[in-house]
Write a structure and sequence with these properties.
Blueprint: H1 8-17, H2 27-35, H3 39-51, E1 70-76, H4 83-91, E2 96-101, E3 108-114, H5 117-131, E4 136-139
Antiparallel strand pairs: 1-3, 1-4, 2-3
Helix pairs in contact: 2-3
Length: about 150
């Protein structure tokens, strides 16, 4: 396994922003003040970590149910020659939060969030119709288990 060289400041920044990102007009200045760094140094280091692929995304996580949305996990059986087109089609929908390939007969799995159950079903049907893939299953959660994951660096 290849690991990237991270110094103590990289690790301190990652520890700060992964679960305690400042809600502030200048979040990188606040992070810098917490760590004794300038805003510019934090921004440069974060950009470097993005460029290296250490950071994939910086953004908020919302409880979609509390906001009135509904969600489901979908699985589809997609022939290998149609995978790329299917993935592009699914990813066009803003409610898709994850989309990944698995070694299984149901080889494409994605999560979908929509403002209502009706819209959720409409989107799945649109994907079936446009892709020609009829074998798409919806697995709505019966019970939600959320865990807090922090990587102490």
């Amino acid at each position: 396994m290849n690991t990237l060289p991270l110094d103590e400041l990289d690790r301190a920044i990652l520890n700060q922003i992964q679960s305690d990102f400042p809600i502030d007009p200048e979040p990188y200045a606040v992070t810098g003040a917490r760590l004794g760094l300038s805003e510019t140094e934090v921004l440069n280091r974060v950009q470097r970590l993005v460029d290296l692929g250490v950071i994939r995304r910086i953004g908020a996580n919302f409880n979609s149910r509390l906001l009135g949305y509904t969600s489901t996990l979908c699985a589809a059986a997609v022939p290998p020659e149609q995978i790329e087109n299917f993935i592009r089609l699914v990813n066009r929908y803003t409610g898709v939060t994850h989309n990944y390939l698995r070694r299984h007969r149901l080889n494409i799995w994605f999560t979908l969030i929509a403002p209502s159950q009706v819209r959720l079903e409409e989107i799945i049907q649109e994907i079936r119709t446009e892709s020609g893939i009829s074998e798409i299953y919806s697995f709505p959660a019966k019970r939600i288990f959320k865990i807090q994951v922090d990587f102490a660096l």
